[in-house]
Amino acid sequence: MSLVLTSLCRTESTVCRHPTAFTRAFSSNTSKKRFRSSSHQETKQFRWKLAAAASGAVVGMVTYNYIQNKPDLTFLRKPVQAKSDPVYSSADVAQHADKQSGIWVTYQDSVYDITGFVESHPGGEKILMGAGGPIDAFWNMYAVHKTPEVLQILEQYRIGKLSRRDQKAINLNDPFANEPFRLPVLRINSQKPFNAEPPLEVLTDSFITPNELFYVRNHLPVPDFDLENFKLEVLVGGRKLALSVDEIKKKYKPVTITTTIQCAGNRRQEMSQYQNVKGLTWGACAIGTARWTGVRLRDILLDAGFDLNDNRFKHIQFNGNDKDITKSSYGGSIPKHKAMSIDGDVIIAYKMNGVDIPRDHGYPLRVIVPGYVGARNVKWLHQVVASDEESSSHWQRNDYKVFSPSTTFETADYKKAQSIQEMPVISAISTPAEGSKVESDDGVIEVKGYAWSGGGRDIIRVDVSADGGKTWKEANLVKDKPGADDSTHSWAWSLWNAEVEVTPGKKNEIVCKAIDSAYNCQPEFIGPIWNLRGFLTNAWHRISVEVEDDE
Amino acid sequence: MSLVLTSLCRTESTVCRHPTAFTRAFSSNTSKKRFRSSSHQETKQFRWKLAAAASGAVVGMVTYNYIQNKPDLTFLRKPVQAKSDPVYSSADVAQHADKQSGIWVTYQDSVYDITGFVESHPGGEKILMGAGGPIDAFWNMYAVHKTPEVLQILEQYRIGKLSRRDQKAINLNDPFANEPFRLPVLRINSQKPFNAEPPLEVLTDSFITPNELFYVRNHLPVPDFDLENFKLEVLVGGRKLALSVDEIKKKYKPVTITTTIQCAGNRRQEMSQYQNVKGLTWGACAIGTARWTGVRLRDILLDAGFDLNDNRFKHIQFNGNDKDITKSSYGGSIPKHKAMSIDGDVIIAYKMNGVDIPRDHGYPLRVIVPGYVGARNVKWLHQVVASDEESSSHWQRNDYKVFSPSTTFETADYKKAQSIQEMPVISAISTPAEGSKVESDDGVIEVKGYAWSGGGRDIIRVDVSADGGKTWKEANLVKDKPGADDSTHSWAWSLWNAEVEVTPGKKNEIVCKAIDSAYNCQPEFIGPIWNLRGFLTNAWHRISVEVEDDE
Prior knowledge:
2 copies of one chain form a homodimer. The first copy, chain A, folds into 4 domains: 1-78, no CATH class; 85-173, Flavocytochrome B2, Chain A, domain 1 (Roll), CATH 3.10.120.10; 204-397, Oxidoreductase, molybdopterin-binding domain (Sulfite Oxidase, Chain A, domain 2, Alpha-Beta Complex); 426-548, Sandwich (Immunoglobulin-like), CATH 2.60.40.650. In chain A, strands 1, 2, 3, 4, 5 and 6 form a 6-stranded mixed sheet that branches. Chain A has a 5-stranded mixed sheet with strand order 11-10-19-14-15. Chain A contains 14 helices and 28 strands. Helix content of chain A is 20%, strand content 27%. By secondary structure, the first copy, chain A, is an alpha+beta fold. The termini of chain A are far apart. Chains A, B: It comes from Clavelina lepadiformis.
C-alpha cells in the first residue's frame, strides 16, 4: 500500500489531502474476507469511493507527468497484499487452465480466478492464452490493459497471492528491450508499446512534419530486421513473389506521394472527457504529413499475377513484422478497388521525407494508403496477400470500428460494423493553446491550425469563430506546392490561419470547423458521435483563451 | 389594387382580416409623389408594414396552394398604378439602355429606372440584357425573380407607367408553350421553368424511382429535338467528333449505372424556415434513383482524341440544348479526373429505367455523373468540350456554391468559392409524415426513409431517435441488388426502416442521421451550415408526430 500511496502523493499533493482516510479505505480492501463479505452494498460503495479517489489521483498524476514529460507508471503496480491471503504456487495455478477446472492467472504477486470474466473479455478468447500462468507479459504487450480501470476489474477476481519463490521464478522477458531513440519532447501516451505525439504548438509550424516529430502509433514492439535476408512476400492465389528491398527499388517505377496520416484515435482525449471511452488518450496531434517514396502496390500486384477481372479477390491484406507473444503479427487490409485503382495512389514506401523510413515508422517497408486510417498503413511490412476477405487480424475485425452512441460493449456487433477505412473531415486549432492567456492586437488575435479529410477530398474552407460558433470568419488556407509529388489528388492536410476579433478582458471560446470538397462538414458536438472506443473525434475543435485587456 | 387584394383574400381569408387598412397602406404607395417624398422615414416604415402584410399573405397563399396542389401565381401581378403616374413610351425607355443615360426597363405596365440597382444584381451584368426594354420575358425565363421579395425590390425603382399602346405591342412569347405532360401529384415549386418533386410518402416505396415520379429540376424551357438531324458534338482541342444517338449506341459498349441524383437545394424548405434563403423551396424529395443506360464518357472522349497525359485539359464541359432568351444554353462542367477515371462511372445516357429518357429528364441524351450534384448531370446534352477551365455558365460560376453562415450577398466571393460537385451525406424520414398522428403498436412505431452520400461512398449506418437525439436505434438498411448494374461503386441511396419506442399520448420528435463509408456524419443543426442560397441542407432530419394513446 505504502508504495502506491507514496507514488500518488508524490505526484500531486492536492488530490491526497487525507492520506489517512485513503489508507483506511484502501487497506480495508486487502482483507479478502471483508472484500467478499455479505456486506455487498458497503463493498460496492467503498469501491466507488476507491474508484473516485484513484481517478482523482490518476488525473493529478497524468497532469504532473504531462508537465514533467516523464510518465510515471508506478500506479500500475498492484497494492502489496496483507499476510492473511491464501498462498498458491505456480503449479496450483497451472492446474486451472480450462473452463472445467476454472481459469486462474497470476499478475505480479497475486492470483486471480477469472473464470467469470472470460466471456466478457473485450479481446475475446485471446485471454485464454494466459490461462494457468502469469499474464504480465501479455499486459506488457497489450498496453490497453494498463489503466487503473482494468486493474480494478482484475482486482475483483483476486483469490490470493503467489508464493515468493514462484514470483521470482517467473522470468518476465521484456519484448520492448530494443526500441529506437525518441525525442523527449514527444508526449507519451503509452510506453510499451510506444505511442506518442508531438506538442500541438509545433505541429503546424511546417507543412511537412519532420520524421522525429511524427506521431508514433505502435501496437507491438518495434521489430528488428535482417535486411540482407529480408524478402517481401506477395501472395496472389497460388502464386508467390518474393522481393528484396533492392529488387523493389530497381524493378518498379518510383513515385513520391505526400499524404497526411491520422490515427483513428486522434483527439480521443476530448471524447473521453465527454464520457469515458476505451483507448489511448490522444490529444490533437496523432496526425502528420510526410512525403513517402516507394512503388505502386498496383504495379507489384500486377507483376505477381493479379488479374483485375478476377472477382475472387476483394481485399488486399498486409502483415507487419511486429509480432505479439504468440508470434502472430500486426495486420490490416484494404478493399481491392483502393489497392488496384491508379487513382488510389497506394504505395509500398521505403523512404519517408527523403530518408530511409525510421524504425518507429516501419523500416524498411511500409504500406502507404492515402486518405485511409493510419491503422491500414501497415509498418514493417513483410507480406501482401490477395484475398476474398478482410485481414483476420484483431485490429481489422475487432478494433477500429465505430458504433452508435447508444451501443455498449455488450451490444456491440463487431461483425456487422464496418472497418474504418476512408477518413472523415477534421480540423483543429494549434495556436493559441487551450487555456492560455493571449494579448490581442487592437482586439484581434491570430489563430492557426490544420484541417484534413480522407479519400483525397481537399479542404475547401475552414470557418473560425471567436464567439463559440455564432459568427464565422473564413481562414486562409495553406496548401502543398502544386506538383510537389506524383499524385493529382489532395491526400495532404491544409494548414490555416485567421485573424479573428476577440473580446479583451474575458474568456473567448475559439472554434474551428472545416468543409471538404464534397461539402462534408464536422459535427458540432461530441455527444452524437460518441462511441465506446473513442474513434474519429471530429467535432468542432474548441478552445478557451483568456484575452488580456489592451493597455 | 383590387385584383391583388381579391387574390390574396380568396386564397386565405385569415391573413386578410383588415382589408381596409391593407388597401390604405397599399394605395398610398401608388402616388409617386408620396413614394418619393421627403418623408423618407415614413415611407420606410410603410414599406416594412407592406412587406410584413405581403409576406403574411404569401405564406397563407403558399399553404393554401400546397393543400390544393394548384399554384396560384397571381401575386406576381404588380398592383395597378394610379392615373397620376408619368407615362412613358417604349421609345422613351429605349433611350435609357446604358450607364451614361441610365438603365430603364419595363415590367408589365410599369417603367423602372434601375441604374442604382445594376451593381447589386445577384445575376451580375446579365441584367443589362434587359436594358431599354421589357424584362417580362427574362423573368419568365429566370424563375428566381418570381417572388414577392424581388418584386418589392423592383418597386423601389418605379418611375412611371408604360403607355397603353406599347403595353399591347410588347409581344411576350411564352418559351414554355411546349412542355411535356406531368403527373398532377407532383408538388410544384415553380411552373416556368418547371420544378417539382414527388410526395414524400411515396418516395421510398421503391428502390428505383419511377420516371414519372422522379423530381424535375429544369432551369429553362424543355427543348424540342429534331432527332434525325441531331448530332452530339465532342470538342477536344482542335478536333471535333459528331455523333448521332444511333452512332453512340452502336459505336461504344453500353453500360447501365444505378445512381441517385439529388438537387443541391433538396430540403431547402427547412433551411429557409431557419432563416430566409434565395432559391426554390424544395422539400425532402428533390432526390431520386434510376438505372441509366448509356456509354462511358471516357470512351467517347478517348475516341475523340483525348490524351490522358495532356495537362491542358482540366475540366470537361457540358452544354444542354435548353436555351435562354439570348440563345445561350444551360451548362456545367466536372473535373477531368472524374470524367476520365474508369472508377468515375460517368456516362452519356440514352435510357432511364429501361426506356428512352423522358423529355423532362433530358431526351435524348443526358450526362450522368454519379455521386455529383444534380446540376452537373446536364440534360438535353448537345456538346461536350475538353477545356482548361470550368464551364463559363452562370450555373457553374455564380450558382451552386456554398458560403459560410456569416457570408452575405455583399461579401460572397463567387470566384473563390468552390463549385458543388461531390455531395455530402444526407438522410430523411419519409414516414410517418411531419405533424401526423400515429398509432403505436405497444409503444413502438415504424419509421422509414432514405440515406445517401456522394462520391460512391456507401451508407454504413442510419441512427434513428424517438427522443430528439438522446438515444439511438440502428435502422435496417435496404440496398440495391448486388450486381444489378455495371458499377462496383455505391452510387445509389440506401432505404431504411426502424422500429422505435415512442411515448404515447404526447408529441415525439423523431430524428434520423446517416453515416457514410468514410464515417462522415450529418450536422446536428441547420444554423452552422446555413448559407444564403440554401444549398446542401443535410442536417439531421427531424419530424414531430403525435403518438395516440394505446386503447
